[in-house]
Amino acid sequence: MSRGPDLFGSYSPGTTLLHRAPLWAKGLSIVAVTLAVVLSPSWPVPTALTVVLLVAGSAAGIGAREWWRGLAPALPVLVLLAVYHVLTAGAAQAADVVLTIVVFLVVTRVLMHTTPLPELLDGVVWLCSPVRLVRADPERIGLAISLMLRSIPFIVGAVGELRDAVRARGLRPNPVRLVTPAVIATVAYAERTGQALAARGFD
């Protein structure tokens, strides 16, 4: 089975300012964006941040199709959240909630597009280095995050392929009936991953 859609984006080599920026600068920028969104009283701040991030990402080479691939899977959830908050708290609150989520989706794609995954994982390992004080291994934390990032697209892709296979047989996909084959595919993927790790000396 294929790995499925690239939900988080993937690194694309380049020489733009964002590509050349060190990881610590990107990390501080993400912290600043997070604080601005969390502390903002209403929707104009996440709106402005979304526009700035879209412009910055586009300047780094993210095209309209890639933006769509990143945002399209979240649209159903965003619509449901918008409707719920419009009915319960008003349009302003709905816009604030939805745009806050969009900000983090966009900043994640910009980060993944401009930063090689090994460099990101090295940064995570460095941030987790204090766990050595409790005899934990930050390298394993980085490995776990790497496996998660690789596994989620595979699982989504597996479910999509199963749904397409059911439709190809002229049947209507039933989410309940897809659970068992999806679990089998996921377990098989996990076993292959475990065997590969064992072959490389990970216990």
From TrEMBL:
<protein>
    <submittedName>
        <fullName>ABC transporter permease</fullName>
    </submittedName>
</protein>
<keyword id="KW-0812">Transmembrane</keyword>
<keyword id="KW-0472">Membrane</keyword>
<dbReference type="GO" id="GO:0005886">
    <property type="term" value="C:plasma membrane"/>
</dbReference>
<keyword id="KW-1133">Transmembrane helix</keyword>
<feature type="transmembrane region" description="Helical">
    <location>
        <begin position="47"/>
        <end position="64"/>
    </location>
</feature>
<feature type="transmembrane region" description="Helical">
    <location>
        <begin position="94"/>
        <end position="112"/>
    </location>
</feature>
<feature type="transmembrane region" description="Helical">
    <location>
        <begin position="23"/>
        <end position="40"/>
    </location>
</feature>
<dbReference type="Pfam" id="PF02361">
    <property type="entry name" value="CbiQ"/>
</dbReference>
<dbReference type="InterPro" id="IPR003339">
    <property type="entry name" value="ABC/ECF_trnsptr_transmembrane"/>
</dbReference>
